[in-house]
UniProtKB/TrEMBL annotation:
InterPro entries: Epimerase_deHydtase (IPR001509), NAD(P)-bd_dom_sf (IPR036291), NAD(P)-dependent_oxidoreduct (IPR051783), SDR_fam (IPR002347). This is N-acetyl-alpha-D-glucosaminyl-diphospho-ditrans, octacis-undecaprenol 4-epimerase. SUPFAM superfamilies: NAD(P)-binding Rossmann-fold domains (SSF51735). One of its GO terms (cellular component) is cytoplasm. GO terms for molecular function: aldehyde dehydrogenase (NAD+) activity. It comes from the Bacteria. Residues 6-218 form the NAD-dependent epimerase/dehydratase domain. Pfam families: Epimerase.
């Protein structure tokens, strides 16, 4: 599509902050949709304050908008978040925003979904968007349901399903892994063999620009992942290489590591970082998306601090 006015939700979050900067750098005028009145984020051409779960009148907010990038929503938690909360934040808010966009004749709706709309914590074999979705928790089910809602509304839409996203300001498991890599101690991960696909926030931003620029309707979900799936030891090695250090990994039986994590209440963390979850981005590649750097290069840049905050 040729328009250059983008409405962006979630602009104050980890991914949204990077998207705002990237879209602005690409020449788009970005209008941020905020839940609360705050200082205008750097790079935004304007802002509209409102509650996405109750978009009573979005006509003014979406006037003249060519596309929406919807990155707001309830993020994944390890456990305990009520399914109703995911339904309200991730399904109903997305549906209502898309309905408002259709009424305002917005050209394209880009939804930031998740690989968890397609699979669980780990999966056997490489995942593609052609596989039948099989989410295993409330978060994944909410993202898949939001995609289904978009398909029912008369708007050109595309849902990106990114794997674990990393970059400056990242939180959660990747932040914990970065902290571990920065310690001076040997780490007992050398024997772990599970491979995980990753994507940097910069490569994800480039994928969003790719679908924004695509001419012709999309109306589909696309997996977003860098091509070089890494084992946990390789992630640590890349992070420490960015610091100019050796990997410093020692072997330890995976069963013993898993037991220690379960005893300390970190069993799900261990499964997330040690199990297989390899994804293929053939659909995005067919649209012309090419990652600017590999996961190993991106992790090294992250630990060096070369990425923008």
């Amino acid at each position: 599509m040729s328009g250059n006015v983008i409405a962006l939700t979630g602009a104050t979050g980890f991914i949204g902050r990077h998207l705002l900067r990237s879209l602005s750098d690409q020449g788009y005028r970005v209008r941020v949709l905020l839940r609360r009145p705050v200082e205008l984020p750097p790079g935004a051409s304007g802002a509209v304050v409102g509650d996405l779960s109750r978009p009573m009148n979005m006509a003014a907010a979406l006037s003249g908008v060519d596309a929406i990038v919807h990155s707001a929503g309830l993020a994944h938690a390890m456990s305990g978040t009520p399914e109703d909360d995911y339904r309200s934040s991730n399904i109903e808010a997305t549906r209502r925003l898309a309905e408002a966009a259709a009424k305002a004749r917005v050209g394209r709706f880009v939804f930031l979904s998740s690989i968890r709309a397609q699979t669980g914590i780990s999966a056997a074999g490489a995942i593609t968007e052609n596989d039948r979705p099989n989410p295993t928790d409330a978060y994944g089910r909410s993202k898949l349901a939001a995609e289904a809602a978009l398909a029912e509304i008369g708007i050109d839409w595309v849902a990106l399903r990114p794997v674990l996203v990393y970059g400056a300001g990242v939180k959660g498991n990747m932040a914990a892994l970065l902290r571990l890599a920065r310690t001076p101690y040997p780490l007992p991960f050398a024997s772990l063999t599970g491979r995980r696909s990753l994507i940097s926030v910069e490569n994800l931003s480039a994928a969003i620009v790719t679908v924004l620029r695509h001419r012709g309707p999309l109306g589909r979900s696309l997996v977003a992942a860098e091509p070089d799936a890494l084992r946990l030891p390789e992630m640590i090695a890349a992070l420490r290489a960015g610091l100019g250090r050796r990997a410093g990994l020692v072997p330890c039986p995976p069963s013993l590591l898993g037991l220690a994590c379960r005893v300390t209440g970190r069993g799900e963390v261990f499964e997330r970082l040690s199990g297989d979850l390899v994804a293929c981005s053939d659909g995005l590649s067919a649209l012309g998306w090419t990652p600017a750097q590999t996961s190993s290069e991106g992790l090294a840049a992250l630990s060096r601090g070369d990425t923008a905050a």
